[in-house]
């Protein structure tokens, strides 16, 4: 469950094996669980997460997520030494354990359907999202033509219009809104004229 599992510990942290990933290739990446974790945004929550990792001898993390997850990972990494010092001072870990776990290594992978991270061709999740969007468009196009109706489809992407733009191009959409290029005044009349043609 993401950072929630890290903070809560217990059965949320377990060793993965081949059986853990058997028969999940067709599922979305969130099959491993995902949760917004208010506790991890606090030092007390990160202290609990550090204790759970240290108890298991885990000093390597692979964080897959967007802005919130990767920002949290960076904060956790920068605080690691201080968190261990605090655990040692409070008698929750020994000096030997603190020494053995003195370094936290983190690999961050951008898992966001928005495709809004520079330095990568495509973020994890974008391709799957585009496939889903095109499946929906293929399914509703026949209905739209049959009923001679205009259909409006909204896609995700937060502040990035990549999914809208690419799926609009791929489907031959007649009109497209993207956040990077907000419509000018009078767009309603222009759109109606275009659709009327």
TrEMBL record:
Q: Does the keyword Heme apply?
A: no
Which superkingdom is the protein from?
Answer: Eukaryota
Record carries keyword Magnesium: yes
Instruction: Show the coiled coil region(s).
Output: none
Q: Which Gene3D superfamilies does UniProt cross-reference here?
A: 3.40.50.450, Phosphofructokinase domain (3.40.50.460)
Q: What is this protein called?
A: PFKAL protein
Which GO terms fall under molecular function for this chain's record?
Answer: 6-phosphofructokinase activity; AMP binding; ATP binding; fructose-6-phosphate binding; identical protein binding; metal ion binding; monosaccharide binding
GO biological process terms, semicolon-separated: canonical glycolysis; fructose 1,6-bisphosphate metabolic process; fructose 6-phosphate metabolic process
Which reaction is catalysed here? beta-D-fructose 6-phosphate + ATP = beta-D-fructose 1,6-bisphosphate + ADP + H(+)
Q: In which pathway does it act?
A: Carbohydrate degradation; glycolysis; D-glyceraldehyde 3-phosphate and glycerone phosphate from D-glucose: step 3/4
Q: Show the PANTHER family listed in the entry.
A: ATP-DEPENDENT 6-PHOSPHOFRUCTOKINASE, LIVER TYPE, PHOSPHOFRUCTOKINASE
Which cofactor is recorded for it?
Answer: Mg(2+)
Domain Phosphofructokinase: from-to ranges? 1-184
Q: Could you tell me the keywords of this UniProt record? A: Cytoplasm, Glycolysis, Kinase, Magnesium, Metal-binding, Transferase
- One GO CC term of this entry? membrane
InterPro entries of this UniProt entry? Answer: ATP_PFK, Phosphofructokinase_dom, PKF_sf
């Amino acid at each position: 469950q993401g950072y929630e599992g890290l903070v809560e510990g217990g059965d949320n942290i377990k060793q993965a094996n081949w059986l853990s990933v058997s028969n999940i290739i067709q599922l979305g990446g969130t099959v491993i669980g995902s949760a917004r974790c208010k506790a991890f945004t606090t030092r007390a929550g990160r202290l609990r997460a550090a204790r759970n990792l240290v108890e298991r001898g885990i000093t390597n993390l692979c964080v897959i997520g967007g802005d919130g997850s990767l920002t949290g990972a960076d904060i956790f990494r920068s605080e690691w030494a201080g968190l261990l010092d605090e655990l040692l001072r409070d008698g929750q870990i020994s000096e030997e354990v603190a020494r053995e776990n003195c370094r936290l290594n983190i690999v961050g992978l951008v898992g966001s359907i928005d495709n809004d991270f520079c330095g990568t061709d495509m973020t994890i999740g974008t391709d799957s999202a585009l496939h889903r969007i095109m499946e929906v468009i293929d399914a509703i196009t026949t209905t739209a033509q049959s009923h001679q109706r205009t259909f409006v489809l909204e896609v995700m992407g937060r502040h990035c219009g990549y999914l809208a733009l690419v799926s609009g191009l791929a489907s031959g959409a007649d009109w497209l809104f993207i956040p990077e290029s907000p419509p000018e005044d009078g767009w309603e009349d222009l759109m109606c004229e275009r659709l009327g043609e």
